[in-house]
Design brief:
Distance between the termini: 57 Å
Shape: globular
Number of helices: 7
Strand order of the largest sheet: 1-5-6-4-3-2-11
Structural class: alpha+beta
Oligomer: single chain
Order of helices and strands: HEEEHHEEEHHEEEHHEE
Radius of gyration: 17 Å
Number of strands: 11
Helix content: 25-40%
Length: 194
């Protein structure tokens, strides 16, 4: 009886602290900060070798779904899932792993909000715009975006902090200007670090 109760309690834990290794989504090998990475749907997926980016880019959803079921962490968010703010991982103080992803947070309050309903905030967008709805500028990589706002099932990325704040404050007005271009998420090679 005690063992059954303990096992049930462990099964209910939705997330773990985000401090374990991030594995390659394709080969399940360890990765590090120097690993080549693919950006997809606002997340970064490091790869273990030169052949893995093409395999992942061809079917990212397949690898993401496999990791969600296995619990193996294969990527990290580039934005706080609650506020939409761009993250600087060197300054992130709170993170947690949930269904194959490492989620970073801009503050403890956002982490607490995420913990109350992780499925709500961990949901990947089906549609998005990498054309800033404020300026009309094309954003070439998710890592170049300043933040995002979700509206009507679409994730809108912005080119700069000013556009991000304008979109957060008056979403309907900014989207009404019609500058965004909505598409499915795309796999993009992460820009190489300078």
């Amino acid at each position: 009886m005690i063992l059954t109760t303990l096992l049930a309690a462990v099964a209910m834990v939705p997330a773990t602290s985000g401090d374990g290794p991030i594995k390659c989504a394709v080969m399940h090998s360890p990765t590090n900060e120097k690993s080549v990475a693919i950006e997809y749907a606002g997340n970064k997926y490091p790869m273990c070798c030169g052949g893995c980016p093409a395999a992942f880019s061809k079917e990212p959803k397949k690898f993401i779904e496999t990791a969600a079921k296995s619990g193996e962490t294969i990527g990290e968010t580039m934005f706080c899932p609650v506020s939409g703010e761009k993250l600087d991982w060197s300054k992130v103080k709170a993170s947690m792993d949930y269904k194959g992803m490492r989620y970073g947070f801009c503050c403890d309050s956002c982490k607490g909000t995420f913990e109350k309903d992780p499925a709500k905030y961990a949901k990947a967008p089906v549609k998005e715009s990498l054309v800033c709805p404020g300026s009309g500028e094309t954003i070439k990589a998710y890592s170049e975006a300043a933040g995002f706002v979700d509206n009507g099932g679409v994730r809108y990325y912005t080119c700069c902090p000013d556009c991000f704040e304008k979109l957060r404050k008056d979403t309907a007005k900014v989207l009404g200007e019609g500058k965004a271009k909505v598409t499915a998420p795309v796999a993009i090679a992460a820009p190489k670090k300078g």
